Amino acid sequence: MKILFIGDIYGRPGRNAVSAILPDLKKDRSIDLVIANAENMRHGKGVNHSNITEMQEAGVDFFTSGNHIFKDATILDHLADSDYPLLRPANYPDEVPGNGHRVIESPDGKKLLVINVMGRVFMPGDLDCPFREVDKILKDFEDEELHGIFVDFHAEASSEKCALGHYLDGRVSAVVGTHSHIPTADQRILNGGTAFQSDVGMTGPLDSVIGADKKLVIEHFLTQMPLKIEVAGGPKVFQALEIEIDDDSRKAVGLEFIQKTID
To answer: For the chain, first and last CA: distance in Å?
Structure first.
């Protein structure tokens, strides 16, 4: 099974980049499932239903998220639908709308368990332990016939991401980090057969500060005045990780970081 995971889609530029690049990429590389982090799709913070529909039409099959998932309150009713193709981090309290994991199927019936958890180091909120949360989910699915298990770890600290990758090595097919919008050069298959990358980056404005208008961000650092984030314009970058998983062992047998730019 081949899956493609797209880094945080940032605002309209990111959505436009996906629409321009993904259809041919999905076909040329014979991708079975496409997953994308959606928490920045609405003007750089949050996501709404029309964003999800737009990206589904471009070829994205399923969505993960992070700490900005609730910025647009209109998404709450959709998250309450157990069939909605969007996860919120699993280590939020149980009372929070939405689910943190889901089994999805490829067109030919291959089953992939997708888990979304959020880090605690340098991150807002007071969430449950992501390590123990994944343990609980894996225990619930230990008798399930799956072809792969994918984890989106939305976290700030590279040390926390690396630790979770090694903690889950051999038990899941992939652990891929999101949140920093800056891709790391550590993509590899760990000793136990788990594909890993600390951060896959983002899909959005290239000439920016992690997607935002650079002039406004620089002014914020110079003056320490409150910052109103505006999505940058100009060239766009598409960053994603392709992972090939052996259907029988559920171990990763190949991975490739993909980066494309368009004007």
So the answer is: 32
In angstroms, the Cα distances linking 166 to 64, 176, 201, 204 are 21, 12, 20, 29
pTM of the prediction?
0.97
* 8 A C-beta contact, residue 187 and residue 7: no
In sequence order, what DSSP letters do the residues of 65-124 get, joined into one string? Answer: --TTTTSSTTHHHHHTSTTSSB---TTS-TTSSS-SEEEEE-TT--EEEEEEEE--TT-S
CB atoms within 10 A of CB 134: 25
Which contacts (CB < 8 Å, 24+ apart) does range 126-129 have? 127/89, 127/91, 127/92, 128/91, 128/92, 128/93, 129/91
43, 49, 68, 220: the active-site residue: 68
User: What would the DSSP string read from start to end of 3-67?
Assistant: EEEE-EE-HHHHHHHHHHHHHHHHHHTT-SEEEEE-TTTTTTS---HHHHHHHHHHT--EEE--T
Alpha-carbon separation of residue 203 from 10, 178, 179 (angstroms): 6, 11, 12
68 assigned to active site: yes
pLDDT tens for the chain, 263 residues long, are 999 999 999 999 999 999 999 999 999 999 999 999 999 999 999 999 999 999 999 999 999 999 999 999 999 999 999 999 999 999 999 999 999 999 999 999 999 999 999 999 999 889 999 999 999 999 999 999 999 999 999 999 999 999 999 999 999 999 999 999 999 999 999 999 999 999 999 999 999 999 999 999 999 999 999 988 899 999 999 999 999 999 999 999 999 999 999 98
Q: Phi/psi of residue 175, each to 5°? A: -125, 115
d(CA 240, CA 260) in angstroms, rounded, equals: 9
